[in-house]
Each structure stands twice: as C-alpha cells, then as structure tokens.
C-alpha cells in the first residue's frame, strides 16, 4: 500500500490518482501509524516552505519520515515535499531560513533566474543507474518552483523537484519504477 | 536544460458544458469538459485550463465535480479559475484535483487576496488572469471585468506590476479585443506586459493562424492559451507544436497513440 501524506497542503487528489495507476492500493492519510508502516510513503507538494512545515509539524510528520528512514522504508518527496526534507528553507524568510525536517543537510535557496517561477516542462539528467529513471531518457518533466536544493541525495528517501504526477505518461512511468521497488 | 514553451487549451465551462463565444458573448456549446480534457491530454497539451463562467452556486458545484473527474484521467497541470474569492475556495479546488488557481475580479476588488493565497500555497499555485483591452489608461491597456463588459479604469501594466509584487506566480493575459476572433493575438499588449512582468506570461485571445502562435512567442509569451482553434478543429495541438518546432521553438512532444 502506498500512503500519500496529508499534511494540509499539496495536490493530494492528483497524487492519489497518479500513484493509483501503478496498480498499488493508495491511501491519503495523516495517520502516523499508517504512514510509518505503508510500503511506500509519498510526501506531495504544493505550497510555501513555512506553511508546509507548519502543516507537517501539526501531524508530527518529521517523526514519520525519520522513522521510515530508520526502518529502511521507501519515501518519495515531490517538489516542496522534497524541499522540506532538507535542513532549512529560505522561502519567504526575511532573517533566518525556516527549519526543515533535516533528513539531508543544506538549505533550499532561491534559483538565480530573471524569470521565476521556473515553470513548465524541462529536460532532466539522471545517473544511468537511477532506479526512478529506468527506461526513461530524453524526456521532459513538469516543474514549478522558485527555490531548489543543490545537494545530491540518495538512499531509501528519494525525491524529485519536478512533479511526476503531472508529467504525463512519462511521469507515470517514473511512478511505476518507484512503486516496483516497494 | 531547455524549458519548452507550453500550449494550453482553455475550456470555458458553464453548467457542466464547454462553451465558447466571440468577445465573451454568443456562447455556443463545444462539448463535454472531461472528455475534451482527456482528448487534449492524449494529444500532448502541456496544461489544461478550466474557466468556470457559471453564474450560480449550483454551476460551481458542477465544476468542482468536473475538476475531480478530470484529475482522475489527466496527468498534466490543471488550472481552474472563475469565482475564486478566498483561500478556502483555493483549498477546495486544489483538493478536488486542481494544480493551479486563477483569480481575476476578486483580486481587483481586494489585492491582498494575492498575498494571502501565495503565503498559504506558494506563488506557483496562483495565476493572475488579466482581461485587458485597448483604452485610454496611461499605458493604453485597461483591466476589465465581467468578461470584458465592464471597465475598471485600472491600467493593465500597473496592475501586473502590483500583482507581481504581491506574489502572483504567473500572468494569464487575455485580450478582450481579440478574444474568440481568431484574428491573431494582441502583440502590442503582450510586448508591453512582458516588459513589466517578473513571472511567466501566458498569452490568450485571438489565436487563429499557426503564425499567430509564433508571433506571440516572439513578443515574449512563455506559454500560449487558445480555445476556439482547438475546440472547433481548426488545428490539433500537435499541428501547433509541429509548426513551432519547425520554427525552432522548444516544444514537448508526446507519442500519440
């Protein structure tokens, strides 16, 4: 079973429908026990960093994510759902960056571009041995963000800045790759 | 990395049906919104926009259901606009399956709504829809409401600058003079708004010939929205993309079954 973490933010239904195409049972939940024990956990993402952390803290989401990591259970963060896994985020912060979950070190910072958000379909370079990108090459995915993490990560917690649930059939193929690993 | 230009079919929805008129009047039926959205998804649309033009609350409930059913079978970004007046309205639409929300009249009435939505959901969720026409404001472009029927005396360029500062994530610029005419986008308006907008710009209103799409991109549009040319079969989405690719614009192609 794949759990989609409901922490008061995010395009939950889009994510639910997209992950359901993998053939797995999908449940949108904020229940800590279910989220900790699901075969896979998706941390979806539409929102601002601080607002998302507030929502995550309200359901004690950090302990869910850390517990899964300790138990080697796969978690997939999407967009802001990936960014909040880092130590801190600079979005809408005027002094100190907002604290994140801290699975990975580093601060999520604003992109340097004259035109933000970075919005639309863009190409992606992935390592050849990437599980998520197995069988997928030279394809574009849908991005919508102004901030980004610049630290490479890996392990049982995986993540994408783009939205696989919004990247058409190619995005569904990536979701299938992830769900096959569960 | 190359960011593709986006082709966005727009579905004006009322009481569960897609309609389209000329200059927002003389509406004619253009089909079932869920079916049309699925068709455009399969054909390679980069996003889909629903504009709810229902006058009644019952019509708005119907639209919510359409959003739900569309989100079940289309896996590209879905923008929904029309009648959004509060953060709660945004939350409801996102939970139904929308990815972005466009606002228009409610932001003109209360610009702080832009900041409220951006703070809660992030700027990227918020599209400011600007229905503008040529008129005697400072820049020569005036913001209108009610589908272009009512002027506001607000200068369109000043409004776009203010909205960017308040945190809007994208501008949907719809020419009320060109809407539905298929006589070409208002290139002067796109150029003028591009110069002041700090966020991506979607051009809308007037697409007819294939060359019109290229002209709007040359004027600085990042994405192109069209309704009539797609609904009534003048062009398929892939026709537009093939043409733009032949003109060396980066487009996303999909395998069409």
Provide a brief overview of the structure:
Chain A is of the alpha/beta class.
What does this structure look like?
The complex is a heterodimer of chains A (182) and B (257). In chain A, 29% of the residues lie in helices and 26% in strands. Chain A has 182 residues and is an alpha/beta fold. Chain A has one domain: Class I glutamine amidotransferase (GATase) domain (Rossmann fold, 3-Layer(aba) Sandwich). In chain A, the strands form 3 sheets. Chain A has a 5-stranded parallel β-sheet, with helices on both faces. In chain A, strands 6-5-7-10 form a 4-stranded mixed β-sheet, covered by helices on one side. In chain A, β1, α1 and β2 form a beta-alpha-beta unit. The termini of chain A are close together. Chain B is of the alpha/beta class. Chain B has one domain: TIM Barrel (Alpha-Beta Barrel). In chain B, 37% of the residues lie in helices and 27% in strands. In chain B, strands 1-4-5-6-7-10-11-12 form an 8-stranded parallel beta barrel, surrounded by 8 helices. In chain B, α8 crosses α10. Chains A and B meet through α1, β8, β9 and α6 of A and α3 and α5 of B.
